[in-house]
Design a protein that fits this description.
Bound molecules: NADP nicotinamide-adenine-dinucleotide phosphate
Distance between the termini: 27 Å
Mean pLDDT: 85
Order of helices and strands: HEEEHEHHEHEHEHHEEHEHEH
Shape: globular
Helix content: 40-55%
Number of helices: 11
CATH architecture of the largest domain: 3-Layer(aba) Sandwich
Number of strands: 11
Largest sheet: 7 strands, parallel
CATH superfamily of the largest domain: NAD(P)-binding Rossmann-like Domain
């Protein structure tokens, strides 16, 4: 069987799909009202978002919650620190935090200061993500868990089922980069990047119950096209792609891997990386627009693998030409 042919969504290149793209008024749009919703979640449904409190996920989860205001459990390694007086919450930037630690808390050791800056900054991000998603009317909580620790992650899933009674959906968006040429990688660093993605997948499979309707895997186009220094990352994402592809052939559970291109506005694409993409002419995915696409795909889509990259204009022009040529 040609797995690639069978599973990669060809929707951008045809108008005859179950989930068609409409082209009208010079805009390319996914069908909204006309299609039947494939994803059904009510207010009691439970969606777990691994890596949900930072990066691109809070925006994507907020947009999903606007459509499905159910119960969301966000997870990451970071811990929320106690901030009874709301002092830390008022510190908006890392510079503000550093100033506070040096002048108010009288911290002196640079390494300790840097460590605490990270902790406060991440904790503030978690609080902001919760607030952002809660605005939709959804119920949101956050838990700290390292998904590379099998026992802890197992216990995490069990505790959620115990507290909420079920897990309807899991969005696995936890990820890590440690780009280096293959020859310079150590086994430990390879494992860290690889297992952040793959270990929780194994645990989810081991702990699988009938309650699960949706498993979303945040993959990357680097699994298909490669990227300098990312052999570990590409290998892990490739496991996502093949899991989604194979599982979707015979299952009621929808497993879908999104092969994201690079995003703009949040997440792991640093300014340096962004400049490199610009140099190479690789367009980035805008947060709002990419989020809307993500939600539409989950609502109406059925595919197992979806490649999403920026450069809407390029795709629109491509389709326009295709249609004008009557193909
Ligand atoms: N942003 C992009 O351009 C892009 C492109 C292609 C694919 N993706 C994929 O999309 C996903 C999200 O990307 P992002 O840019 O939002 O990444 P990000 O900003 O680096 O966030 C990654 C998230 O994963 C969590 N995480 C990392 N290691 C973890 C562990 N061992 N246990 C639990 N949580 C862990 C982090 O929380 P803690 O630090 O608190 O653990 C954080 O919430 C990733 O899987 C990434 O591979 C992103």
């Amino acid at each position: 069987m040609n797995l690639r042919k069978k599973t990669i969504s060809p929707k951008l290149f045809t108008t005859k799909q179950a989930f068609p793209l409409q082209y009208s008024n010079g805009r390319l749009d996914a069908c909204r009202n006309k299609c039947e919703r494939n994803l059904k979640l009510d207010k009691n449904s439970v969606v777990v978002v691994l890596g949900g409190a930072q990066g691109i996920s809070p925006e994507l989860t907020a947009q999903l919650a606007a459509e499905y205001p159910c119960r969301y459990v966000l997870a990451g390694r970071s811990k929320q620190i106690e901030d009874v007086e709301g002092v830390y919450a008022s510190l908006k930037t890392m510079i503000d935090i550093r100033k506070h630690l040096i002048t108010v808390e009288k911290m002196k050791v640079p390494a300790e200061i840097e460590k605490k800056i990270q902790k406060i900054y991440k904790s503030n991000q978690i609080a902001q993500s919760i607030a952002k998603i809660e605005k939709t009317g959804a119920t949101v909580s956050y838990r700290s868990v390292d998904v590379t620790n099998t026992d802890n992650f197992k216990a995490f899933l069990k505790s959620i089922r115990k507290e909420y009674g079920k897990i309807d959906g899991i969005i696995h968006a936890a990820g890590l980069l440690n780009d280096k040429f293959f020859v310079d990688k150590t086994w430990e660093s390879f494992e860290k990047v690889y297992q952040t993605k793959v270990n929780p997948l194994h645990v989810i499979a081991d702990e699988m119950k009938d309650d699960l309707k949706l498993l979303v895997l945040f993959s990357s186009i680097s699994s298909s096209y490669g990227n300098k220094g990312q052999s570990d990352y590409a290998a892990a994402n490739s496991v996502f792609d093949h899991t989604a592809a194979l599982s979707s052939l015979n299952s009621d559970l929808r497993i879908v891997a999104f092969n994201w291109g690079p995003w703009k506005g949040a997440g792991m694409v640093s300014e340096t990386l962004e400049a490199e993409f610009a140099r190479r002419g690789v367009p980035l995915i805008p947060l709002k627009e990419g989020g809307a696409y993500f939600v539409n795909e989950l609502k109406y889509g059925k595919d197992a693998r979806i490649i999403v990259a920026g450069g809407r204009e390029k795709v629109e022009n491509f389709l326009k030409n295709l249609m004008q040529n009557g193909e």
